[in-house]
C-alpha cells in the first residue's frame, strides 16, 4: 500500500502513515468520501497486520484469517467481530450502499498473506511478470474499486487503472529499498538483478547501515526499474480524462505524485538504497501545476 498526507477521517485510517498521493481528499465528491475512506482503512489495516511491528508470521496469518472472516461476514450482511470496528463498521455501510465486489477485497487480503509467507521464507520474485502478478492483487483491486464507485467498467478504463495502480505499487517498492531490504523484503526481480550481475545477497552490504555505497550495477538496476514504472504510469495516465468530475482531478494528483517520486529517485542518482525520497507539503504547488497541465 502506498501512504498518504491527505485528510482521511481519523476513525478510518491507521495513524502516522505517509502516502505519495491524496486519499479521499476534498476533491472527491462528498458522497464518495466515506466509501473511499472505508476502502483505505480496510487495505491499510490489513497491510499493517502483514507488515508492521515484530509479530511472528504465524500470528500475522491468523490475524489475516480473522480479518477475512470479518470481511465475509459484512459481505453477507452479518455483524463482524468487535476486533476492528473502525474498519468493518464503515466498510459494511459502503458494501451495502455501493455493492462493492467481494472478490476485489479478497484479492487484497490474498496479496497481504503472500507478503507474510514470502518474507518468512525469504522467497524472491523470479521476474517482472511474477512481481506484476503480485501487483494485480495488492494494488489493482483498489483502482478497480474506485472505478466501480465512479461508474466506469469498460475494458479500456480497467486496463489503464491497472497500469496506474501497478505503477504506484512498483514506485513504492523502488522508493522503499532503504526500508524494505533491512527488513528482509525483496522486490527487485531476480532475473533483472542477474542481468546486472547481482544476486540476492549482494544488497545487504550497501543497505542503510551497511559499510559500502551502492555499486554502479545496483544503481543501473534501479534506473531500469524507474524507467519501467514511469512507462507503466504513462500508459495508464489517459484515464484521468475519462474519470468523471472531481475524481479526475484527484487522479491527476495521484499520477503526478507517483511520477514526482520517480523524479526524486533519479535526481539522487537512483540511490534509494540509502535514502527514502518522499513528497512533502511544499511540493503541492508543483503537483497542482503538473496536474493542471495534464
UniProtKB/TrEMBL annotation:
One GO process term, biological-process aspect: terpenoid biosynthetic process
A GO molecular-function descriptor: geranylgeranyl diphosphate synthase activity
TM spans (from-to): none
Keyword Heme among UniProt keywords: no
InterPro entries hit by this protein: HSQ_synthase_HpnC, Isoprenoid_synthase_dom_sf, Squ/phyt_synthse, Trans_IPPS_bact-type, Trans_IPPS_HH
One Pfam family hit: SQS_PSY
Superkingdom to which the source organism belongs: Bacteria
Protein known as: Squalene synthase HpnC
Organism: Xenophilus arseniciresistens
Lineage: Bacteria, Pseudomonadati, Pseudomonadota, Betaproteobacteria, Burkholderiales
Amino acid at each position: 500500500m502506498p501512504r498518504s498526507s491527505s485528510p482521511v477521517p481519523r476513525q478510518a485510517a491507521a495513524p502516522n502513515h505517509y502516502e505519495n498521493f491524496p486519499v479521499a481528499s476534498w476533491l472527491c465528491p462528498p458522497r464518495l468520501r466515506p466509501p473511499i475512506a472505508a476502502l483505505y482503512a480496510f487495505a491499510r489495516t490489513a497491510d499493517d497486520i502483514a507488515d508492521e511491528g515484530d509479530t511472528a508470521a504465524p500470528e500475522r496469518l491468523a490475524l489475516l484469517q480473522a480479518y477475512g472472516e470479518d470481511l465475509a461476514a459484512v459481505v453477507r450482511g452479518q455483524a463482524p467481530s468487535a476486533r476492528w470496528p473502525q474498519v468493518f463498521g464503515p466498510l459494511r455501510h459502503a458494501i451495502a450502499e455501493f455493492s462493492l465486489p467481494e472478490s476485489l477485497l479478497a484479492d487484497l487480503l490474498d496479496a497481504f498473506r503472500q507478503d507474510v509467507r514470502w518474507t518468512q521464507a525469504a522467497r524472491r520474485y523470479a521476474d517482472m511478470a511474477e512481481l506484476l502478478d503480485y501487483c494485480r492483487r495488492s494494488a489493482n483491486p483498489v483502482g478497480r474499486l474506485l472505478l466501480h464507485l465512479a461508474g466506469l467498467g469498460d475494458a479500456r478504463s480497467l486496463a489503464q487503472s491497472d497500469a496506474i495502480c501497478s505503477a504506484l505499487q512498483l514506485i513504492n517498492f523502488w522508493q522503499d529499498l532503504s526500508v524494505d531490504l533491512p527488513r528482509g523484503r525483496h522486490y527487485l526481480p531476480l532475473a533483472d538483478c542477474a542481468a546486472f550481475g547481482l544476486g540476492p545477497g549482494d544488497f545487504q552490504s550497501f543497505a542503510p547501515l551497511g559499510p559500502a555505497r551502492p555499486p554502479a550495477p545496483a544503481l543501473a538496476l534501479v534506473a531500469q526499474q524507474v524507467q519501467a514504472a514511469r512507462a507503466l504510469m504513462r500508459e495508464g495516465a489517459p484515464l484521468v480524462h475519462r474519470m468523471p468530475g472531481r475524481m479526475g482531478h484527484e487522479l491527476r494528483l495521484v499520477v503526478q505524485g507517483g511520477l514526482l517520486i520517480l523524479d526524486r529517485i533519479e535526481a539522487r542518482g537512483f540511490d534509494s538504497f540509502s535514502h527514502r525520497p518522499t513528497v512533502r507539503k511544499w511540493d503541492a504547488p508543483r503537483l497542482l501545476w503538473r496536474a493542471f497541465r495534464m
